[in-house]
């Protein structure tokens, strides 16, 4: 059985992008949807139910490693547990840590020769396996770091606004800072050629799934924020 697990933090976020990405790769996938605001596995009802029903040979597809866990230690432990049960894990944005890749690292050991050289070959095999494990850990750590950095930038932005005497709220004409605006501005910076990307406005609008008015509003605010 092939399952696709998709998760968003609030009901206001759009889950369709994750679903579309997974279905583009796996046509007959069974999608499991979750709305959960935390980063730990506790309380993720749909994910916990999925873990209980998984059988050896099943596949679970995630749009990215952050959808399984943004806590590095927890994510690595879940990965190991499912791998040992024979569950195949696929991360569309981090294909280098798919469990198939890890299995290859385990099976592609250099064969022993029955000579003194074996001590060297055994060391090489141990190194290759440790390298594969480290790649998995780094992927989860990077995901956790991105969340922590985003939270830190948000706190710093709120503190800066307060020091400058700006009022944060929903007063007429004021700028409202939301989780969506923070995430979408980050995407615009990543993809737009006016910042760190290579895409024009139309293509950036498509990939960020923003309306024209909202896109240009966020882009204008970005120029203002980055010029401070």
Task: Write a structural description.
The protein contains 9 helices and 4 strands, in the order βαβαβααβααααα. With 228 residues, it is α/β, with parallel strands linked by helices. The protein has 2 domains: 2-143, Rossmann fold (3-Layer(aba) Sandwich); 178-226. A 4-stranded parallel sheet has the order 2-1-3-4, sandwiched between helices. It is globular, with a radius of gyration of 22 Å. The mean pLDDT is 78.
Quick structural summary:
With 228 residues, the protein is of the alpha/beta class. The protein contains 9 helices and 4 strands; from the N terminus they run E-H-E-H-E-H-H-E-H-H-H-H-H. The chain is globular and about 70 Å long.
Question: What's the helix and strand layout?
Answer:
Blueprint: E1 2-8, H1 16-25, E2 30-35, H2 45-53, E3 59-62, H3 65-68, H4 72-84, E4 88-91, H5 99-107, H6 118-163, H7 179-191, H8 201-208, H9 212-226
Parallel strand pairs: 1-2, 1-3, 3-4
Helix pairs in contact: 4-6, 5-6, 7-8, 7-9
Features:
228 residues, single chain, alpha/beta, 9 helices, Rossmann fold
Order of helices and strands: EHEHEHHEHHHHH
What would the average pLDDT be, to the nearest integer? Answer: 78
> How big is the Rg?
22 Å
Helix content: 55-70%
- What's the CATH H-level superfamily name of the largest domain? Resolvase, N-terminal catalytic domain
